[in-house]
Write a structure and sequence with these properties.
Blueprint (H helix, E strand, L loop, with lengths): L14 H15 L3 H10 L15 H11 L6 E5 L5 H10 L2 E6 L2 H10 L9 E5 L12 E6 L9 H10 L1 E14 L6 H7 L3 E7 L3 H14 L1 H8 L1 H14 L6 E9 L30
Parallel strand pairs: 1-2, 1-4, 2-3, 4-5
Antiparallel strand pairs: 5-7, 6-7
Helix pairs in contact: 2-8, 8-10, 9-10
This protein binds S-adenosylmethionine (SAM).
Length: 289
């Protein structure tokens, strides 16, 4: 098993952004409180072993398992893997190899430390890399998953192109997305620009309600959060809870399955059809944490 500090060829993460995520992961690693509140908010749908910092629940794990359609021994990439539970769980379930990456060195260290609980030595590797520039080889992956991380990329169009670039012909990219009801999703155009086909759009009707329960718990436990995570991290969480709660009734959450065609065009080459980099037409997409 390897734990490279950086990936060859990848641009290093912007230090300030990486440092924010390092602080986020380091604070959560110090306490079981955040995981307990996730468990309470998700109830029976909480996959405790995975312990994600996201909307990952049993229905999502089931959907991803079915949509990936991977064969034993193939390579799965977990993009924005956090502490690694989702990729590790899927890799064990599907008998595949795993590469996980995240912008946070702290998260990658934790993912590496957990890998032995799920997989035998040599089946998983983790590295520090960005969604927009992974440094991984073209066509290396038979499946890519990206759970509640795409909305954090500085340039989502570029991130979809980059994750699409990793897909072997016929392979799939599964990504959680959210949009305000009544607005036109950008994912069709982003997929086309990356040379991918939208194969499935699976609705996740329980996702906004899960965030609502979690945010109310965060607000109810504000004092404990401050005590256990420190002022800064607690302030980030409580600010997010107050900001996002009112938007949840209008939120539509989905799991997208994007596929690279089996006979792939030589290059996506769709730069002229792409939305301007860095433009986020619908910021309701930003996924809570
Ligand atoms: C909400 S967490 C989800 C983590 C994990 N996928 C899960 O479901 O538990 C978002 C993750 O994205 C990572 N992240 C944020 N911006 C990133 C970027 N530009 N490239 C790679 N990872 C990024 C953060 O460090 C964090 O671990």
């Amino acid at each position: 098993m390897t734990h490279p500090a950086t990936v060859l060829g990848a641009a290093p993460p912007a230090p300030a952004v990486a440092a924010q995520y390092d602080a986020f992961h380091a604070a959560r690693a110090r306490t079981g409180l955040v995981a307990r509140l996730y468990a309470e908010a998700l109830g029976e749908d909480y996959p405790a072993e995975v312990a994600a910092s996201s909307s990952c629940d049993w229905p999502l794990l089931g959907l991803m398992t079915a949509r990936l359609r991977m064969q034993p021994g193939q390579l799965l990439v977990d993009a924005g893997c956090g502490t690694g539970g989702i990729g590790l769980w899927l890799a064990r379930a599907l008998a595949v190899r795993l590469v996980g990456f995240d912008i946070s060195r702290v998260a990658v260290g934790e993912a590496f430390a957990r890998s032995g609980q799920f997989l035998p030595p040599g089946r998983a590797a983790f590295c520090v890399a960005r969604l927009e520039a992974t440094g991984l080889p073209d066509g290396c992956a038979h499946g890519v998953v990206c759970v509640d991380a795409l909305s954090r990329a500085a340039d989502r169009d570029q991130a979809v192109r980059e994750l699409g670039r990793l897909l072997a012909p016929g392979a799939r990219l599964l990504v959680t997305r959210a949009v305000r009801r009544g607005t036109e999703p950008v994912w069709e155009a982003q997929a086309r620009a990356a040379g991918l086909i939208v194969e499935h759009v699976d609705e996740r009707p329980g996702e906004p309600g899960m965030w609502e329960r979690l945010y109310r718990l965060w607000i109810d436990h504000a004092e404990e959060l401050r005590r256990e995570l420190g002022e800064d991290q607690a302030a980030n969480m409580l600010g997010e809870a107050h900001r996002v709660l009112p938007t949840l009734p209008g939120r539509r959450a989905v799991l997208l399955t994007l596929r690279r065609p089996v006979a792939s065009p030589a290059a996506p080459g769709a730069a002229d059809t792409m939305a301007r980099p860095g433009r986020h037409p619908d910021d309701s997409e930003r996924t809570p944490q």
